[in-house]
Design brief:
Dehydroquinate synthase-like, alpha domain, 6-stranded parallel β-sheet, Rossmann fold, 362 residues, two-stranded antiparallel ribbon, 15 helices, 15% strand, alpha/beta
Length: 362
């Protein structure tokens, strides 16, 4: 169940009460089967609201892990598993993940693998998590610098999404989420594409953000429902990700981590340039590329890499999960609302586009 609204306290309390046979709110938090996983930032920013909502959370049932990609590794997973074991978590237990995209990724992964799977809920607190990571049932951690190489498909039973959290975020976090919003706008086309070309709304404008969140959730949920395990059309959600993940992995390897949405935004630009070469409607694809390039240059700081870095980027692209042996498979947009997947692209074509964006994407 995905809930998206303003009164998260009431909705969350009612869901917990229902989950535990209508016990009173005051006793919910003391249930030995409830565990709260949060990131270091959400522990201070957000957990107090949830704490007030359920009447107090035992300290031993709260675990804070590092923010961002630093949490997506096997060492952190082991910490989570040991915490659950030491506190006697059972298959009947419930993990509630409260945080951004990385927190939802690793928390869901641990829930789906501990004791071969226990129930988990997501409360995404960043825009990226609201429109992407918390929805769709993909869980995952990184293998070294390779993004999301280890993971499962496992759905959260409940997801609670509210725009109230957005005002707690710095600008770069809003922008990171907006990169995925732009991707969804391309997939949908029409009014959604028009909206993502407008200025980003003020985070205090809850009604506008509620509308944006709902159409993003709708497009992702529709695709995921049709193809949960990514055998076909779910690959469309990987627009911008073949190059975007390579940029992100490269930056992690250089210990200069960049926000996920920034990498995807520039991935969308470069992959739209790549799409021109195989487009059945070249003029429309060229227009999309120019519009994207103009938009991304205004919003996102450049991602710098040199010509000497291209072989490393190509290694990451070749390792992408969508590829089929030696075939490099991309999802591509030829026009807003007109996209396809499993497009075979030559290494030479990718290298040419990367060369066009060496040092600065001007």
């Amino acid at each position: 169940m995905i809930w998206c609204g303003l009164d998260i306290a009431t909705e969350f309390s009612e869901a917990l009460s229902s989950r535990f046979d209508n016990i009173s709110d005051a006793n919910i938090a003391s249930k030995p089967d409830v565990f709260f996983l949060c990131s270091q930032s959400t522990h201070s920013l957000c957990l107090s609201l949830i704490d007030d909502c359920v009447g107090g959370i035992p300290e031993s049932h709260i675990l804070s892990i590092p923010d961002g990609e630093d949490a997506k590794n096997l060492t952190i997973c082991e910490t989570i598993y040991i915490w659950l074991k030491d506190n006697n978590a059972q298959r009947s237990s419930l993990i509630i993940n409260i945080g951004g995209g990385a927190l939802c990724d690793v928390g869901a992964f641990c829930a789906s693998t501990y004791l071969r799977g226990i129930e988990f809920w997501n409360i995404p607190t960043t825009l990226l998590a609201m429109v992407d990571a918390s929805v769709g049932g993909k869980t995952g951690i990184n293998l070294g610098h390779y993004k999301n190489y280890i993971g499962t498909f496992s759905q959260a039973t409940h997801i609670f999404i509210t725009p109230h959290w957005l005002k707690t975020l710095p600008e770069n976090e809003i922008l990171s989420g907006w990169g995925e919003v732009i991707k969804h706008g391309i997939l949908l086309g029409g009014k959604a594409w028009t909206q993502v070309q407008q200025p980003i709304p003020n985070t205090h404008d809850h009604q506008v953000w509620l509308s944006i969140l709902k159409w993003n959730i709708k497009i992702k949920s529709r695709i995921v429902t049709a193809d949960f395990e990514e055998k076909g059309q779910r690959k469309l959600l990987n627009l911008g990700h073949s190059i975007g993940h390579a940029l992100e992995s490269f930056s992690l390897n250089q210990e200069k981590s960049i926000p996920h949405g920034y990498a995807i935004a520039w991935g969308l630009v470069m992959e739209s340039a790549l799409a021109i070469q195989s487009s059945p409607q070249r003029e429309a694809t060229e227009s999309l590329h120019q519009n994207l390039k103009t938009m991304i240059q205004k919003l996102f700081t450049p991602i710098h890499f040199s010509q000497d870095n291209i072989p490393a980027l190509m290694n990451y692209i070749r390792a992408d999960k969508k590829n089929n042996h030696e075939k490099l498979l991309f999802s591509m947009a030829f026009a807003p609302g007109e996209c396809d997947y499993n497009i075979v692209v030559s290494p030479e074509a990718i290298i040419q586009v990367l060369n066009d964006y060496v040092s600065h994407p001007d």
